[in-house]
From TrEMBL:
Molecular function GO terms recorded: endopeptidase activity; metallopeptidase activity
Gene Ontology annotations of biological process type: CAAX-box protein maturation
Classification lineage: Bacteria, Bacillati, Actinomycetota, Actinomycetes, Micromonosporales
Entry keyword annotation includes Transmembrane helix: yes
A Pfam entry, by short name: Rce1-like
Positions of the CAAX prenyl protease 2/Lysostaphin resistance protein A-like domain: 105-196
Protein name as it appears in the record: CPBP family intramembrane metalloprotease
Keyword match Nucleotide-binding: no
Keywords: Hydrolase, Membrane, Metalloprotease, Protease, Transmembrane, Transmembrane helix
Membrane-traversing stretches: 30-49, 70-90, 102-123, 135-153, 159-177, 184-202, 235-254
UniProt superkingdom: Bacteria
Length: 278
């Protein structure tokens, strides 16, 4: 019941925010303000409903220390996307025609902030976290990662391959990031860093969605399995490989920190205090 209540509270704000951002029609100041407002209101809704349904402080979105955690996540996401674009460029699938639009990049800050925050709250903050309590970290990851991929299947230019790629490189990776850090700021940062690097900096399609030009006028071409095709670099084999590698890194970090949650009924970690590691 609490899962449904939490999903409903965050989804209501996310839906209203998406309508408002869409109505802005990429007007730069409006899209920026409405996108950031959607992100903030979604966080407040999540914190409120967690307090009401779980009778606890929502420490996973605590404001204290949020900046550095968010910043680390953004760097990881940006670096991951830059590495993927570099691999695509080396194989002849990405080139830059020139400068794009600074205004478009600013608008995308708001748009991507809303998308990153709302999706992380819904999929990692609610679904993964609550399912993990019963099925453990591995069970929750195997259940929620495919759901995240399927959620992107209705996007323009999406295919079963792109949905599978998103399930691994984002669904599994972001769950692993949460499992290792036990806060939502780092996965939000990774999510935003990846999305903004794609649309706002390198000028590529992001999850098949139409968006204004970013800082660079970038173009992808060639076989879709290498470049991602119309879905964007997320649909490339390079993104899939990067996601697998980073997922393994964060799961290993979670195991080392003792933050992996066992399936209900199994023995808990030897040092429960380790789950408080930042």
């Amino acid at each position: 019941m609490r899962l449904l209540k939490q999903l409903a509270a965050v989804a209501a704000v996310a839906f209203a925010g998406s309508l408002a951002v869409g109505a802005a029609r990429w007007n730069v100041p409006l899209t920026l303000v409405l996108g950031v407002a959607t992100a903030v209101l979604s966080l407040l809704a999540y914190a409120w409903v967690v307090r009401r349904t779980e009778r606890r402080a929502p420490v996973e979105v605590a404001a204290r220390g949020a900046g550095p955690k968010l910043g680390r996540g953004v760097l990881v996401g940006f670096a991951m996307f830059a590495a993927v674009v570099a691999a695509i460029a080396v194989t002849g699938g990405y080139r830059v025609h020139g400068w794009g639009s600074a205004g478009g990049a600013v608008a995308l800050v708001g748009f991507m902030a809303a998308a990153a925050v709302t999706e992380e709250l819904l999929f990692r903050g609610v679904l993964f976290r609550i399912v993990e309590e019963r099925l453990g970290t591995w069970g929750a990851l195997l259940l929620t990662a495919p759901l995240f991929g399927l959620a992107h299947l209705p996007n323009p230019n999406a295919t079963l391959w792109s949905a599978l790629a998103v399930a691994v490189e984002a669904g599994a990776l972001l769950a692993a990031v949460y499992a290792a850090t036990r806060n939502l700021w780092v996965p939000i940062g990774v999510h935003f860093g990846w999305n903004f690097a794609g649309g706002g900096v390198f000028g590529t399609d992001v999850s098949g969605k139409d968006a204004p030009q970013g800082l660079l006028d970038g173009v992808t071409s060639g076989p879709a399995v290498l470049s991602g095709g119309g879905f964007g670099p997320e649909g490339s084999v390079w993104a899939l490989l990067a996601g697998v590698a980073l997922t393994a890194v964060f799961l290993r970090l979670a195991r080392r920190r003792g933050t992996m949650v066992p399936r209900r009924g199994r023995t808990a970690p030897a040092d429960p205090a380790a789950t408080l590691a930042p």
